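Researcher: Hi, I'm a grad student and pretty new to this. My advisor asked me to get structures for two proteins we've been looking at. I'm not sure of the right format, so I'll just paste the first sequence and hope you can take it from there.
Model: That works fine. Here's the first sequence with its structure tokens right after it:
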Amino acid sequence: MKESLSQNIKDYKKQMELGNIPKAYKGLMEYIMNLRTHFITKFPDDFIVGNLYQGYMDMTYFPFTPKSLKSQKLKIGLVFNHEKIQFEIWLVGQNKQIQKKYWDLFKGSDQNKYTLSTTAKDSIVEHVLVDNPDFSQLDSLTKKIENGTLKFIKDITNVLA
């Protein structure tokens, strides 16, 4: 039986009253905002960083455009998947037509390092950067995300070359 919004709100209220979800969510959003700032300040000449999208507790992400992908109208999405509690990186197009064009290109390529999205709707390719992140070591986590992101961009750029 489908749950009613009224019942879901009651459950939501109970969880909010416990206090752990609001604290965890606030801490997570602060970390992701700091991660965005990290990319802005560390790579000011390499990336054009977009705004943070907090989502519906399904995913939180910010887009950025590496200069190496700008001419192809491609962007990178740095995504936190709330359900799986993992950081992901997505290659996305500037619009649906660009996305479909490059999805078709990757579908026809022999690239097998990264997962081709099942459809061109949300992304072109996706990759898990950090599964089960350790939030007690934020500097180390940021370094893992940064290293994985730079490798992803390099690999994608090589496929497109």
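Researcher: Oh nice, that was easy. Here's the second one.
Model: And its structure:
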Amino acid sequence: MVLAVLMTAAGCGGKKESEPEKEPEPVYPVSIDGAEILIGETTVQTLLDQGLSITVSESSPDMKEITQYEVDPELELEANSYYSGGSIWITEHCFAHIAIVTDEEAVKMGDAVIGYMEFSLVSAEDETLDKLMFNGVPISELNREKAGEMFPDFSGDENMWFSTSVLKDYEYFMGFDTAGNMIKLSVEKNYDVDWNNKP
């Protein structure tokens, strides 16, 4: 089944004035059981080849049942589109929500990249946390204090630590419980899409 199309980029005419080149931003990797994911770069096929399970979900008309389907890497996706509703499974009970993004040409799903990823880790067990890493550090070790040391330019409080500039291409968010343990992690690349367009 096709992922839900949330938005499609609008075409733009004319030439843009030349802008000074930006310093390339660091892309902090996420790893699942040894498979490294760079948001905005890693393709669906790369993750499938590394043995990760990727599914999409579809609700019944009455919204009482949800059916999951394995993604089809041969499925053609539209150009300049952002698809949500996907999941990467880590264990039987723990997964990451993902969005899949295409560029200026239509591509097969396997060639589309992961543009967004979010983990909810509130009920994750220790063995699950040991399978996850963010920027080379196991999630089980990445508490609030460690996050502040690793990312001193982020902002927040004792319960959250996140990147702040809307001018940057990437957004990072980490949430923590009262003991300082990570319970949420999201990584997103910002894309120039028209949020007002309809599927």
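Researcher: Is there anything I should tell my advisor about the second?
Model: You could mention this: The first helix runs from residue 44 to 49.
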